[in-house]
Amino acid sequence: MSVLDGGGDPAAGRMLVVTDPPRHTDLRGILARHFSPRALRSLEPAIAGTVDMLLDDVIGRGECDFVSQVAEKLPVKVICELLGVPQQDQDWMIERTTTAFAGGSATEPLQARIAYGEIMLYYSRLARDRRSEPREDLISVLAAARIEGRELTAAELALNCVNLVIGGNETTRYAAASAVLAFALHPEQFRLVQDGTASVSEAVDEVLRWATPAQHVMRTVRDETLLGDSCLRPGDAVTVWLAAANRDPEVFPDPARFDVTRSAKRNLTFGTGVHTCLGIHLALLELRILIARLAHRVDRIALAGSGRWLESNFLSGLTGLPVVLEPRVA
Question: Rounded distance, CA 67 to CA 89, Å?
Answer without folding.
Answer: 20
